[in-house]
Amino acid sequence: AAPGTAATGEGAGTGPEGVMAGRRATKRKETSDAVEQDEVDVRAVERSPSISSGTDESDSEDIELAIDSGSDGDDRSEDTRQSVGAEEEDEDDVPKRRWAAVMDDDDGDDEEDSEEDDEGSEEVEFGSESEDEDEVVGSEEEDLASDSSEEEREHVNTIGEGIPLKWYEHERHIGYDVEGKRIQKQAGENKASTVDFFLDKQDGTLGSKSNKVWDEYNQRVVELTKEEMRAIRRIRKGMFPHLSVDPFPDLLPWATKDKLHEPMVDLPEPKARFLPSKWEAAKVVKLVRAMRKGWIKPPSELERERKEKEEEESKVYMLWSDDNKEASWKAANGLSYVPATKVKLPGHAGSYNPPKEYMEDENEDDKDMQISSKQSFDCLRKVPAYDRFVNEQFERCLDLYLCPRMRSRKGNRTAENLQRRMAEQRAKLPKPSELKPYPRKLAMEYEHDDGVCVNSVSVDPAGRWLATGSDDGIVRVFEVSTTRCLRKWILPASDKRERKVTSVSWCPAGKDVLLAVRGYQVFLLPAMASSAKGAEDTPGQLLISQSMGLLAGAEGSPKAKWSKATAKEGLGGGKHDGLCVDLGKKATQCSWHHKGDYFSTVCPSGNNMAVLVHQLSKCATQTPLSKSKGNKVVSCKFHPSKPILFVASENHVRAFHLVKQELVAKLISGSGSIISMAIHPQGDNIIVGTTASRVEWFDLDLSGKAYKVIRNHTNTVQDVDFHARYPLFASASDDGQVHVFHGMVYNDFETNPLIVPVKILKNAHAITGHLGAQSCCFHPQQPWIFTSGADGKVKLYIN
After folding, report:
1. How many CB atoms lie within 10 A of CB 797?
2. Which pLDDT score, from 0 to 100, does residue 148 have?
3. Angstrom distance (rounded) from CA 653 to CA 693
4. Residue 383: its pLDDT value, please?
5. 324: three-class secondary structure by DSSP
6. Would the pLDDT of 674 be above 70?
7. With contact defined as beta carbons under 8 Å apart, do 355 and 363 qualify?
8. Is the pLDDT of residue 3 over 80?
């Protein structure tokens, strides 16, 4: 105890803190002495499979050794701990004291075991206390964790730890040496099997408490040392094998408790730390782009796709196509039930003994079946055999064999079911009485001379005057409220001998300029010009006069020829100047731009000049389309508010952006050839009339195909039109009827347009020469509609 006393004395002069430091130093010294005394090779114990796995608590009594566990170092450490515990106790040393008590209990058990071994037998003695002390003194400079016992023992087995021993169970050798020669298994006293070792232990040959174990790896008996046995006991009790392990070491602070008042680096913060990282922003942009394109997916979606893929791969499908049908379609054996064809029930023609009255008359069934019913037999056995019996049976079997397995059920398409379904659909729609106002009854008729066919009608923006164009080449202007004809414009003669006025249109700018199409020419007329003396010029006359002033110095356009034309007013007898545009091709239709300066014309046979756009203020003409795609052009309309031009051919409707010069939309008609077209006031919906007696509604926001197809007419739909203020649209057909619909377009993108038929104007016009209603036009302010037909009448229907 001299080193411990010296350590205690060095710290005694510094007060209570020095006393505590001395006590800790004494305890550390005692622990190191105990470690040197009880050094154990743990890895050597673990190498033996009989100790680590083959030995359990039940066999512990048979393997106990009589080992002397007492030593001077242990007694000295115990006395020191008791002396330290008797003095003032530090709070930090409480857990260490408890651990030391556990160590003492272990040492006490070792002493008891050693005493029993000494009394029981003298065969197992490993040395005296002096020898143990000499070993401890000689090994003070050695490393505590050295594997000396493992190195001393010679390894006989050279096959390696990764190869199981059962592979060499029936072999005479075990592994190979450095030169590649076989290593024979040991023979004689060292060779023993597990069974022999067990029998020797039961017979007492190895001693009552033997420290010998069987090394399965090297196939030999190994004698354990006292330190190894002591380590085994400590492991069984749940303690550390070595006494050198301190479960409660001193806590070494990893940081100082002193607070630093000055920073270690007193440099100003760089500006980059306060600015957002550009590299991170670029990385975020890449990640967002990858997520939008589907390159990066969340784990939940990846898991879902993986499950779907696994289900698809492991999906078992039926060999026959009808196996997935409903159970009602199958028979009891699981196959599709195909009923046999119903055979006509046998009558008198197939009877072998028909009644007498049937034999006297000729029967049509006998002629069809090519048999004679004049034969009669008393019994069935007298009937001769049928010569085609085998052939018919074979054909019947062939029909059943080649019959398709899938059976198609015909729907119950009776008139009653159709009426019931139509009634259910009508019940879902609002009633027409709830959708008022709309034109319902005839109010006025505007007569034309000799019942000439009226091809087109148009109402001025104020709704006061009505213009019509007819086959006699005269443009008439009526007063809407009185049906009085105010003007009758007789267009100048043409070299082409074309008299029919196919289209008329009022200028939407509020000026009395009327556009009329006749054959190869388009006329601009001052519709309300007066022939009275001293009458002031109308706004239409002033506008036409300004345009004619540009004709003198302007160069002629190769696309169209602008010229001055004089039209005669048939009622007043006066003549007024107008403008004439010679297109070079036969025109069929014209329409104004919403600003009133531009107008378009359609020439179906014009190829690349089928659609021409003209400017009134400059007397200029241009071709917006370099070439016409598809079939011939039949109609052309401007968008109500955007610079978009809708061009309708026989099968398609294309929308072109005039500023960007690109195709905006393409609509495909699925029934017949397109004849007429109308644009909704908002510009997002279009209706077209076709030769298949149908009206198709297109929604530009939905798809390129028709949203609704209306099949109410029985003949070609000649004209369609939208109302400018009310949710109404109408269609005129050659069947002499005009249909009025309620067409509500909602501003939100979630609700589809509501289309409800509200009124059918039956017998609106008489059919003349296979032609009925030719044109329809709504009043700009009232829910009224004007219709014209081949019977030479123009009618006004009001609400």
Report:
1. 24
2. 44
3. 18
4. 83
5. helix
6. yes
7. no
8. no
Strands 575-582 and 561-569, by their bridges, are: antiparallel
Q: Which residue has tokens 């980059």?
A: 272
In the numeric block, which tokens belong to residue 456? 């087109």
Neighbours of 110 (CB within 10 A): 22
Q: Number of helices (H) and strands (E), helices first, in the chain?
A: 17, 33
CA dihedral sign, ordered 198, 199, 200, 204: positive
| H-assigned helices in 194-298 | 194-203, 226-236, 278-293
pLDDT, one tens digit per residue, over 252-276 is: 878 777 777 877 777 888 898 899 9
Mean pLDDT of the chain: 75
> Which residue has 């709704």 as its token pair?
463
User: Is residue 128 over pLDDT 70?
Assistant: no
Q: How far apart are CA 208 and CA 119, in angstroms?
A: 12
Predicted confidence at residue 36, as pLDDT, reads 45
Alpha carbon distances (Å) from 50 to 54, 86, 162, 191 = 4, 44, 18, 17
* Range of 559-563, 627-631, 784-788 with top mean pLDDT: 784-788
Contacts of 333 (CB under 8 A, 6+ apart): none
Across 18-22, 204-208, 431-435, 551-555, least confident range: 18-22
> What six digits make up the tokens of 642?
């955007």
414's tokens: 């009776």
Distance between CA atoms of 766 and 789, rounded to whole angstroms?
8
pLDDT band at 30; cut points 50, 70, 90: low
Q: Report the C-alpha gap between 504 and 518 in whole angstroms.
A: 9
DSSP string, 251-272: P--SS-SSPPSS-S---PPPGG
Q: Are 687 and 700 in contact (CB under 8 A)?
A: no
Residue 111's alpha-carbon distances to 69, 75, 106, 118, 687, in angstroms, are: 5, 11, 9, 11, 111
Residue-level pLDDT at 324: 53
Rg (CA), the chain: 58
Single-letter amino acid code for the residue at 249: P
Helices (H), 204-315: 226-236, 278-293, 299-313
Nearest one of 427, 52, 406 to 213, comparing CA atoms:
52
Evaluate whether 36 touches 136 at the Cβ level (below 8 Å): yes
DSSP 725: S
Instruction: Specify the residue for token string 């508010």.
Output: 641
Distance CA 666, CA 220 (A): 94
Tokens of 207: 């001693």
Find, among 736, 726, 785, 715, the residue nearest to 480 by Cα. 785
Q: By C-alpha distance, which of 538, 652, 513, 536 is closest to 596?
A: 513
Alpha carbon separation from 534 to 537, 541, 573, 576 (Å, rounded): 9, 14, 15, 14
Q: What whole-number distance in Å separates Cα of residue 601 and Cα of residue 635?
A: 9
Q: Residue range 687-691: average pLDDT? A: 93
Could you give the CA distance from residue 373 to residue 365 in angstroms, rounded to a whole number? 10
Residue 43: CA atoms inside 13 Å, Cβ hemisphere, count?
10
Residue with tokens 């169970």, as numbered in its chain: 169
Output the pLDDT for position 87.
Answer: 42
